[in-house]
Design brief:
This protein has a single domain (about 70-305), classed as Orthogonal Bundle (MetI-like fold), CATH 1.10.3720.10. About 70% of the residues lie in helices and about 0% in strands. It contains 14 helices and two strands. The longest helix is centred in the first third of the chain and has 32 residues, at about 80-110.
Length: about 300
Amino acid sequence: MSSIVVERHPETPPPRRRTRRQASTLPLVAPSVIALLLWMIVPLVMTIWFSFQRYNLLNPDAQKFIGIENFTFILGDSGFWISLGTTIVLVAAVLAITIGLGTLLAILFDQDFPGQGIARVLAISPFFVMPTVSALIWKNMLMHPVNGLFAQITRGLGLGAIDWFANFPLLAIIIIVSWEWLPFALLILLTAIQSLDHEQLEAARMDGANAIALFRFVMLPHLSRAIAVVAMIETIFFLTIFAEIFVTTGGGPGLATTNLAYYIFLKALLEFDVGGASAGGLIAVILANIVAIFLLRSVARNLDT
């Protein structure tokens, strides 16, 4: 007796059809996407165009194509390299201060103490002050050599007044920017440390770990991802610091506090050299993208581990 085996083939699923809701999404999103692309692409294209032109606002009729002369002039200008070095020092110093103090303050504010909520609000509040306003506060109320609070304190100690913006201009800018961005680092790191498993801390204490060992081997590895994210976000913003320098030192004395953003401002609006400023801006964009790629890879590496 023969048996016939009927082989069943799995039925192919019918092609998925877009629902009415999915089909109507594109017309709603398209205008905002197009506006965003135009907002990003048009200024970039104009900057690239002017970077290859000799264009000065004092003599706009003399505009002509000069190739890469603007780039060679910027790269051969000692002021550009001074501003690049100032930018690196400024970014590195503020990152070290905000991340270091932010980590210590996050551990402190994670403890229970009277007035904890009020202390957290006061610690985070400087982040909501506009950069121009905070620079004016530090310039006229804190670091003023005659009427500033710091001058009153140093005079009371018999040390005399210190003219911060004349004697220590870059240090003054670093202090101001650190005061502005320390609350941001504190907020991110405090949120990260609150997600730490307290049972892990208790187990480490039972094994005899002291406070330093707890911080080094338990808390710091847990905060590594948050620290990487803070470093990436802050670096992107620190590369474009402008208001604090403009309000307080004006890039001086000399070029002591001139970073890349302020150097481009001097080229564009004080020397009226639109072509040179555009070339400097493109160089700054390339450097910023290199830093951003490096930071994104480091953040992604921390997220994978």
